[in-house]
Amino acid sequence: MDELCIKYKNSLYNGLSKIGKCLSSDKRIEILDLLAQGKKTVEKISLETGMTVANTSRHLQILKDGNLVSCEKKKNFVVYKISNEKIIDLVYLLINVGETQLSDVQKIHDEFYEKCCKAKILTVKEAQEMVKKENVLIIDLRPEDEFNSNHIENAINIPMKMLEGRLEDLPKDKKIIVYCRGRNCAYANIASRILTNHGFCAYSLNQSYYEWNKSKI
């Protein structure tokens, strides 16, 4: 009986180790974070991560073997997506644990803040309270496909690369909250600083739509 129990236990841990393998690469974690924003083709993931298509495909196959992502064929493209919402929970839990337990991770955040932006950063709760009480404009800085997948209610989409060309369209009599893909993306902080430098009252919601939505539940 003991031998059977040991075999049972070892088999389970061996199965779980596949998840560990998926998360043992910085690029695979980045891919999961990207797919948390919405479906993407192999080519789009390759472009976003700076990897070759071949290398991207290898990482995606490992994630698929661990059942963290799934794919479907659309014409000449293979489109990948997160297998289920628990995977997104896992990605953000990993980010939170990293920030809490690894001093190097928090140091990277702090150094970037000091050197590059010094933005006025809101928590999700603070941003939600501001939206309830005041007339606020929310800008989603992500690419259009990610905005169309899901976005904060009443947000407008101005992708980061288009922001400076759209400044004249923005109101200076409203507070502006900008957000992008979350804390591992620098765009919200940088965009907030750009807007502030041009006379807007801007805040960075340096968290993702997913975190905003989970906070409402």
CATH architecture label name of the largest domain: 3-Layer(aba) Sandwich
Shape: globular
**Would you give the CATH topology of the largest domain?**
Oxidized Rhodanese, domain 1
Q: By helix and strand content, what is the structural category? A: alpha/beta
Strand content: 15-25%
**Which stretches are poorly predicted, pLDDT < 50 over at least 5 residues?**
none
> CATH superfamily of the largest domain, please?
Rhodanese-like domain
Number of separate helices: 10
For the record, the count of structural domains works out to 2
Describe the structure in your own words:
The structure is a single chain. With 217 residues, the protein is α/β, with parallel strands linked by helices. The chain has two domains: 2-87, Orthogonal Bundle (Arc Repressor Mutant, subunit A); 118-216, Rhodanese-like domain (Oxidized Rhodanese, domain 1). Helices cover 55% and strands 15% of the residues. It has helices spanning 2-22, 26-35, 42-49, 53-65, 85-101, 103-117, 124-133, 144-149, 187-197, 209-216; strands at 40-41, 69-74, 77-82, 121-122, 136-140, 156-157, 175-179, 201-205. Strands 4-8-7-5-6 form a five-stranded parallel beta sheet. Strands 1-3-2 form a three-stranded antiparallel beta sheet. β2 (69-74) and β3 (77-82) form a beta hairpin. α1 packs antiparallel against α4, α3 (42-49) packs across α4 and α5 (85-101) crosses α6 (103-117). The model has no long low-confidence stretch (mean pLDDT 93).
